[in-house]
Design brief:
By secondary structure, the chain is mostly helical. It has five helices and two strands; from the N terminus they run ββααααα. The chain has a two-stranded antiparallel ribbon with strand order 1-2. Helix 1 packs antiparallel against helix 3 and helix 1 packs parallel to helix 4. It is elongated.
């Protein structure tokens, strides 16, 4: 299936590329209007500011890092599957499932549900392997 010339799987690559940015935005949510001296977001030193965060903001930042780490394998798997002529329907379904699992992973991370988060991470990893061999 194609939309605007791209397969669903390629659209999922785009979504996966945006997930780390969304996690960063979540970590910074509501802190742009607060003055820096009161703990508000510091755009001059964003990494240092994020490193000082705690609780759900720190976990959202960690989810950002993990989303960046997971991205190359997903992109590679989708590209390789396309190149070797994988079933497009199977590839699209697996790529969509991967995105759903990654969204659940981020939610579980921010909610501090570590065991469920790890299980969802493992499922997404297995789906990614399935994409590679689709």
């Amino acid at each position: 299936m194609k939309l605007a010339g791209l397969t669903v799987a390629y659209w999922c690559v785009l979504v996966s590329s945006v997930l780390p940015i969304a996690c960063a935005g979540l970590a910074k949510w509501g802190m742009f209007t607060r003055p820096r001296r009161q703990g508000g977001y510091d755009n001059n030193h964003p990494r240092q500011w994020l490193a000082k965060q705690t609780d759900w903001r720190a976990r959202a930042n960690a989810a950002q890092a993990n989303s960046f780490e997971a991205l190359p394998f997903f992109m590679g798997a989708v590209i390789i599957a396309h190149q070797i002529g994988a079933s497009q329907l199977r590839l699209d379904v697996l790529a969509f499932l991967y995105i759903v699992l990654r969204l659940l992973y981020i939610m579980m991370y921010v909610a501090d549900l570590a065991t469920v988060r790890s299980l969802v991470w493992a499922l997404a990893f297995l789906v990614n392997i399935a994409i590679l061999f689709a």
